[in-house]
Amino acid sequence: MASKALSHLRICDFTGQLAGAGATKFLAAFGAQVIRIEDPVRQGRWDILRGLPPFVDERRGIDQGGAFNNHNVEKLGVTLNLRKERGRQLLRQLIEVSDVVSENFAAGVLERMGFGYEALRTIKGDIIYVSNCGFGHHGPYSEFKTWGPIVQAVSGLTFSSALAGREPAGWGYSYMDHTGGYFMAIAILMALRHRNRTGEGQAIDLSCTDAGATLNGPALLDYTVNGRPLRRDGMPDSNRSQHPAMAPHGIYPSKGEDEWIAIACRSDADWQSLAAEIGEPWVGEQHFRELAGRLREQDALDVRIGEWTASQERFALALRLRAAGIPAAAVAKPGERIDDDSNTEDWGLWPEVKHSAMGTVRADGLPVHHSESDWSVERGGPCLGEHNQQVFGGLLGLDARELEALRAEGVI
Amino acid sequence: MSDAPSTNDGALAGLRVVELSSERGAWAGKLLADMGAEVIVVEPPGGDPMRRYGPFLEDRPGSERSLYWWHYNTSKLGVTLELDSAKDRKRLLGLIATADLLIECEPPGVMAARGLSYEELCAVRADLIAISITSFGSSDLRSAEPATDLTILAGGGPVWNCGYDDHSLPPVRGGGNQGFHTACHYAVMSALVALLVRDETGLGQHIDVNMHAAANVTTEAGSYEWLVARGTVQRQTGRHAAQNPTLPTQIECADGRHVNTGVPPTRPAQFLGLHRWLRDLGWLEEFPEAFLLELGAEREFIDLAKIAEDPELMAIFGAGREAQNLIASRLSAYDFFLGSQQRGLPVGIIYAPEEVLEDPHFRARGFPTEVEHPELARSFVYPGAPYRFEKSPWRISRRAPMLGEHNELIFRPLEEQLP
């Protein structure tokens, strides 16, 4: 059953990819009526994920994209050609009955279509307009284009992910598309709360690079307060922990091909426990006894620990270390954490959704549960124009003949 | 508490949040506090362990000198309570009776053992929204096991995706406590949903945030390649992990700094831009594939899905990347970034975090934010707003609280209310 938590809210949604679609997915999972507006002329291809892999089988096409489905579960989808006046008229009608307009176009795109915030406000006085773009709507780079990896690069997050003395490793996925989406959902929800309290809507300019730059706070303050940049010899070294200082703290080889285990000692007591588990003479060396010494000798310490872990099975070793009170985890591969992990399974983290074209597919669920108004993810992402009848007919009241005419004229 | 709206209040003005201090939940409290909620962070009398995390002001440790504490606790009020003492537990209950939200990160069972279970909290505040952030959710015994940001990100998926092409090197945990941040983002999103639900129904509720699950659903293709097609992605330097290797996107420029070219040129206008850029730099003669850029510029539309069956398109695509590589190797990272973007090519300079603060765009947006430290008679620059609210702005209203700084302010009115 669909969640009722936000079922009183309607979102006129131009978002796509993950940075935008991820935000409205969260709201849709809690029951908000999210109506995706897509361009029938380009068959919704502005969202490149529509037709891209992964695919469930040999079928291809704009209704077969697995990533698109993942980010758009529980949403409705309509097509609307905004080049035509009739299309713009229908959009105005939709905005009149919406609480929020959301988009993650490049800055200025919606305004050029005639639907900037000032225009939106004349249609619906208390509308909430949230834009998420790479560099925001103001500033010298506002026209610049981004993808997740570009946002991560400019905001400092790529740089801060690296092994010592090597080029940045960065993020092997669009961390800031996910996280930009989280900030966007937060912004929408906060603006709704402000509207509940004051009756007023507003425009929100979310710059994804600004948001990303807030996520390295202690390193930034080390620079602004102490004058110490993160770009310095031996740094960054992100498998280690500088703040708080921990040693050993790293990712070590384990038995098998490309298999690894993460181990962290938070304190001298954790180290004593690990030393007891290792049980080799070297662990008693005086300079390893206290944190300062372990930090100083960290390279040598890591080599020794790596030699000890290399012959052991990572899941069994992690279990043994945690039982001894030491934080440890096998570096989990996708299949292991999705199919062989009782925690994610018991949580219901990978719900099966029914997609009108793809059939039954699993998708990312939500890592939260609410005792009174929990989320629900059952319906797959919308096929192109799948809900034209429901939205233009049911919601806006057009009859079958009018809908047919709109199709014939290329409006929907 | 007055709920009358006034101009320039943050979006969460009038909301009272009690946060039991923890490195795991501090970011959630900050996100709420910087938007105007009154967030009261409750520490043990000796101070939260975060106060002992570096970096420190002038590199000298001290409970009021931790920049880590400063960053994660802006705009909050601070009180101290000994939650193992009956007297202080009563004070906490008195405080919670006045609160809308509670954020706590204790392992399962700890709150109940103190007589502070969700049910007991509801007895003093019926419509309380209580958020528990735990490693594996409040019903999994694994939440009582030791875990850190590193082990959460390793077990939850992100680490598998990140690292280098050379797989003899370990995979990499991205820096900056992003495992904690991700759980906090979900905690805040969920708390706000619950707040809107309370506005409609009057009901409070308990929210269970699972850090391991939060990491699991923040890996993009890492999860959905497996969910949809049972594919396993493999890590690559500076770009998306993928089942099959893709071409590098991270380039070292002439000044030794790096840029990321993200998705390579695919639009005809981008090929034209690259061709003209080479011409303007006088390097066209040195780039034999220049004619491919012209072919790309002449195409009406480029469909990447057709690349495998169109050898010319494959060549055009490759020439675009090669042209970028050539130009990047001869310009500084900043000039390459600017020049690319001015030609419609989505390229990013790889900044160290502090370099963002010196960049003209971020300065023009007012991102670097001065925060007064009256006790030091100084002010310092902090990272600024993640979002710009036109009517209910983000704002750091005060520096992080000193230990027990607001005990008097917060507890005296509560004690005056006691019979």
Sum up the structure in keywords.
heterodimer; A: 412 residues; alpha/beta; 6-stranded parallel β-sheet; 3-stranded antiparallel β-sheet; 17 helices; 12 strands; 13% strand; B: 419 residues; elongated
* Main beta-sheet annotation of chain B: 6 strands, parallel
Main sheet strand line-up of chain A: 3-2-1-4-5-6
How far is the N terminus from the C terminus of chain A? 29 Å
Q: In DSSP terms, counting alpha (H) and pi (I) runs of 4 or more, how many helices of chain B?
A: 17
Show the largest interface.
A-B, 156 and 154 residues
Total count of helical runs of at least 4 residues of chain A = 17
Query: Oligomeric form of this entry?
Result: heterodimer
The fraction of residues assigned to DSSP E strands of chain A is: 5-15%
Q: Please provide the count of β strands of chain A.
A: 12
Structural class by sheet pairing and helices of chain B: alpha/beta
Helix content of chain A: 25-40%
Instruction: Give start-end ranges of low-pLDDT stretches of chain A.
Output: none
The radius of gyration of chain A is 25 Å
Strand content of chain B: 5-15%
Task: For the largest sheet of chain B, list the strands in their spatial order.
Answer: 3-2-1-4-5-6
